[in-house]
Amino acid sequence: MLTRVCLIVVLLVATSLWSQVVGNGAGIGSTSQAGDEDRMLTPSPVDIQGYSVALGSETRSNYLRTGVAFRSEYNDNFYTGVSGNPVSDMSYSIWPTIALDETTPRLRSMLTYSPSLTFYQHSNTPTQLDQIVRANLQYRMSPHMTLSLQDNLARTSNAFTLLNPASVTVAGSIQAPTTPLMFAVGSGDLLSNTAAGEFTYQFTASNMVGASGAFNDVHYPNPLRVQGLNDSTYTAGSAFYTRRVLKKHYLGATYLYQKILTYPTAGQGETQTNGALLFYTTHLTSRVSVSVSGGIQHSEYIQVPSLPVQTWSPAGAASIGWQGVHTTFAVAGSRTISGGGGLVGAYHLITANGSVRRQLTRTWSTSISGSYSLSKNVDSSQLLFNPGGHSVAGAAAVHHVLSEHFNVEVGYARIHQSYIGIAAIVNVPDTNRGWISISYQFIRPLGK
């Protein structure tokens, strides 16, 4: 995983230098180049980027940002083990961050590294060192060809930090890998790496084709402390064609292949899916888009020594996004066959998630996010042992700018999970968290 992150960092630096050599052209950093008004957007059902939830004041580019946050958090389900009552505790974290965002006429590159050191007040859990690395690159190879790469790597002992409403990603496609199940803080570590790449080519004024690939690896280093959860590896590939009808309407079709490997105690499970979907996207205004997709999906699940299980199922997704100056809003729902995320087997998966952010005043803003997932094993013979389950999560936070460099945030999050047979979750399915953080940041513009 670290090798992939290093490779992406090298690509970011090398491509940045190359873009400065090749000179000007219709590119990402400029909207006034000839032909940009005819450039097609990648429809949400096939876009690996997902909906942006950044507020207008946060969309600046060409900067180097450094800072540190001090965070205090209360958790009422710190660690239960495989049985017993939940234990509540206070934790204190230090979060330094360095972020680089650079835009040229051809290239947009973003890199963020945020380690953290967490101390616990009452428990005997040793001090935890967590690390999160995010890299995102969008390169305009020509006026009509774009390459996008991204990688998110996280090693954390507190998977609930991934529920921060200000950083939740809302995707409009069914290609996103299954989100790992959450476990009590102190149960163990979670290693998660998600990488994706996409190439798009607009070969006429109203026609576009593209291809993408995705990889996700979930690993629990301490399996005895998260009994019932299993490592998994997700790989996927897709291809699409879309045509712009009139100015704001897109019609298209996509093919999606997925391969999910799970590693339970006994043997290895493998799920493969093939799906074909039609989709429609409309841009109601320059800030609002709506997308729907639907089709059929075939899956095959194999776990030796059992016989393969095959099934056909409808698949689809719907989403809407609104990117305003003071308000951003995105919501999406999907139905698909998938697996991984800690579960063993292939599952009918229904998901819904959303995010709202609002700039209340110049110094006050708020964010709210929520998610729901329901999974049911496609193999009827496994409904007794691995039936699946459901989860509901929500988070809200208020952010206040104290001065040019200091900020404060207060937040609350709750998650309910119901999964029979997962000892790390079934005993105490509910977790409540509250936190307050004070941060200092320094922003230095790049370039002129």
Outline of the structure:
With 448 residues, this protein is mostly beta strands. The protein is 6% helix and 58% strand. The chain has one domain: Beta Barrel (Porin), CATH 2.40.160.
What this model shows, in words?
With 448 residues, this protein is mostly beta strands. It is 6% helix and 58% strand. It has 2 helices and 18 strands. The chain has an 18-stranded antiparallel beta barrel. It is globular and about 65 Å long. The chain starts with a helix and ends with a strand.
Q: Can you give keywords for this protein?
A:
448 residues; mainly beta; globular; 18-stranded antiparallel barrel
This entry's quaternary arrangement is single chain
Count of β-strands: 18
- Domain module count: 1
Q: Which class in CATH terms?
A: Mainly Beta
Mind sketching the topology for me?
Layout: H1 2-22, E1 63-75, E2 89-103, E3 107-120, E4 128-142, E5 145-156, E6 190-204, E7 207-219, E8 231-245, E9 249-263, E10 269-283, E11 288-303, E12 309-323, E13 327-340, E14 343-359, E15 364-377, E16 388-401, E17 406-419, H2 423-426, E18 430-445
Antiparallel strand pairs: 1-2, 1-18, 2-3, 3-4, 4-5, 5-6, 6-7, 7-8, 8-9, 9-10, 10-11, 11-12, 12-13, 13-14, 14-15, 15-16, 16-17, 17-18
